[in-house]
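Q: I'm building a small set of examples for a reading group on sequence design. Run inverse folding on the following structure and report the sequence directly after it, with nothing in between.
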């Protein structure tokens, strides 16, 4: 039997979160955290609603996951996020010791790889999963804003 729990499957779940952010006027970034093929956290940007520059989808997902697991480390967890994490989020992900990060679109202006940010040495990174869909949502959002 074919495993339906692929990186694309979970990235589609993160995209659903990003679409909710889009509809609420938030920059459309969505995230889910998965452990053993089970989503333990869902989040999207809340910076406008909470009037908080730190309320990125990844930060919300880290907090929700830690609460679910009852501890601060996200070992054996995978974060699926529609946009490459920024340096702030990469720092938080570093400290969480998350096992794997899968992101959709690269952020050539503020992404952690552009700025020289680092992740935990044991964190595996996969980029470009549903990249076109993730990037298009961002383009549509900023087109609507202007």
């Amino acid at each position: 039997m074919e495993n339906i729990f692929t990186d694309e499957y979970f990235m589609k779940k993160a995209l659903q979160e990003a679409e909710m952010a889009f509809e609420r006027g938030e920059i459309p970034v969505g995230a889910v955290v998965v452990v053993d093929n089970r989503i333990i956290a869902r989040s999207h940007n809340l910076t406008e609603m909470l009037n908080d520059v730190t309320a990125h989808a990844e930060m919300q997902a880290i907090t929700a996951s830690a609460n679910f697991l009852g501890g601060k480390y996200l070992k054996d967890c995978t974060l699926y996020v529609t946009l490459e994490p920024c340096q702030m989020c990469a720092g938080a992900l570093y400290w969480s010791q998350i096992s794997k990060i899968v992101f959709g679109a690269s952020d050539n202006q503020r992404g952690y790889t552009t700025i020289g940010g680092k992740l935990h040495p044991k964190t595996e990174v996969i980029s470009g999963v549903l990249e076109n869909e993730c990037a298009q949502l961002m383009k549509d959002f900023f087109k609507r804003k202007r």
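The chain is about 45% helix and 20% strand.
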